[in-house]
Design a protein that fits this description.
By secondary structure, this protein is α/β, with parallel strands linked by helices. The protein folds into 2 domains: about 10-190, Glycogen Phosphorylase B (Rossmann fold, 3-Layer(aba) Sandwich), CATH 3.40.50; about 205-380, Glycogen Phosphorylase B (Rossmann fold), CATH 3.40.50.2000. The chain is about 40% helix and about 15% strand. The strands form 2 sheets. It has a 6-stranded parallel beta sheet with strand order 3-2-1-4-5-6, with helices on both faces. The chain has a 6-stranded parallel beta sheet with strand order 9-8-7-10-11-12, sandwiched between helices. Helix 8 links the parallel strand 7 and strand 8 (about 255-260). It starts with 8 loop residues before the first helix and ends with a helix.
């Protein structure tokens, strides 16, 4: 029996109803028959594989160990990652990825309109069909993605069935909220015989971008640390005045230049912090793309930020990384691995809540400036 991941009962019922009716119709018409053994027997020696991850930076980075395991399993095959256009540049130079297919979409924005979901299905279906893939994989198990994979007539379709649409998959893996995301991705890849062992994938900077960055900002030739005060949701954003307190403490005690980064979500926070800090800082919020961010982080002595994409990037660049986690997500599932990573969280009964807005934010307010400074200093002195 399928265990659906939705927290709301009405969504679980809707997914179950979709599977019962859809699966029944497909079986009645003889359009589809799920038989994993037969599907895998037809797998070519050098298959063309599409790994679909249309979500955030952290999700994509968590899928890279599975992508590497698939490439090692099929070294003569073609491995393509299908991602959002906004993050495609981040993985453009990953050596074990043969192709990056970018689709302009934001499928997991709050209250996504139905028409946008229909457009997503149509664009993804057209993209997959045009490249004649042998295998398509969706570890997230989005019913829209699964539908597009099926109607692109891809022979082998693998993914999670826990959000609905599992009857359209050749083989399904249960999605569990208490399993690390990287491990779940590897379990999905293991259906094809890939080795299910988590190994970190390091992000390396482009030397030309590093040099261009230093030429544009000569002050960065001095020791500096990077701060990302933004996040995808208000419930993940630690207060700006606390970031300012940490910045001043680290700058004074260690003689490091503070550099603020971020996209549109960090502009307001960055301005507030710049006015609140006693320290001289460099504000690069809204002025670096993802490739430039990797180049910047490769020169930094420390990263400090909320649970966000840049924090995941910093951990995989390999620099000392301090992350302030709210109670929105399960820390044990989403924290980056590594001895150089310090994660701070405050336990509350309502976590993980997955809320975008919260009237109390007690999970974030329970983390003090002193705790974050202490974590940063431990990493700086080891």
């Amino acid at each position: 029996m399928t265990r659906y991941i939705y927290r709301k009962r009405r969504l679980r019922l809707a997914a179950a109803l979709f599977d019962i009716i859809g699966g029944g119709v497909y079986r009645l018409l003889g359009l589809f028959r799920r038989n994993p053994d037969c599907a895998l027997e037809s797998l070519p020696d050098a298959p063309k594989i599409a790994l679909v991850r249309l979500d955030g930076i952290g999700d994509i980075l968590a899928a890279l160990p599975a992508a590497r395991a698939l490439k090692e399993r099929f070294p003569d095959g073609v491995l393509a990652l299908v991602v959002r256009k906004q993050v495609a540049e981040l993985i453009a130079n990953i050596p074990f990825v043969d192709d990056v297919l970018a689709i302009d979409c934001s499928p997991y924005a709050p209250r996504t309109p139905i028409i946008q979901s229909i457009r997503l299905i149509m664009r993804l279906n057209k993209m997959l069909k045009a490249r004649d893939f042998d295998v398509a994989i969706d570890p997230r198990g989005d019913p829209r993605v699964i539908w597009a994979m099926c109607h692109a007539r891809i022979p082998i379709r693998i993914g999670a069935s826990s959000a609905g649409g599992g009857f359209l998959l050749s083989a399904a893996v249960e999605y569990r909220r208490d399993v690390r995301e990287a491990e779940h991705n590897l379990k999905v890849a293991a259906v094809l015989g890939a080795e299910p062992r988590v190994r970190s994938v390091k992000l390396c900077p482009e030397p030309a971008l590093v040099e261009a960055l230093l030429n544009e900002h000569p002050g960065l030739r001095n020791p500096f640390f990077v701060v990302h005060p933004g996040a995808s949701m208000p419930t993940k954003t630690w207060p700006s005045d606390r970031f300012a307190g940490v910045i001043d403490a680290i700058a004074e005690r260690h003689g490091l230049l503070p550099v603020i980064v971020g996209g549109e979500d960090a502009l307001t926070c960055a301005e507030t912090i710049a006015h609140s800090c006693q320290s001289t800082l460099v504000n690069l919020a809204g002025r670096t793309d993802l490739r430039e961010l990797v180049a910047l982080l490769s020169r930094a002595k420390l990263f400090l930020g909320n649970d966000s994409g840049p924090a995941q990037i910093a951990a995989r660049v390999g620099i000392p990384t301090v992350i302030v986690f709210s109670g929105t997500n399960d820390v044990s599932v989403w924290r980056p691995a590594g001895e150089n990573v310090a994660v701070l969280s405050y336990a509350v009964d309502c976590s993980p809540c997955e809320l975008r807005f919260c009237p109390s934010l007690k999970c974030l307010l329970g983390i003090s400036v002193e705790e974050v400074v202490a974590a940063a200093e431990r990493l700086l002195t080891t």
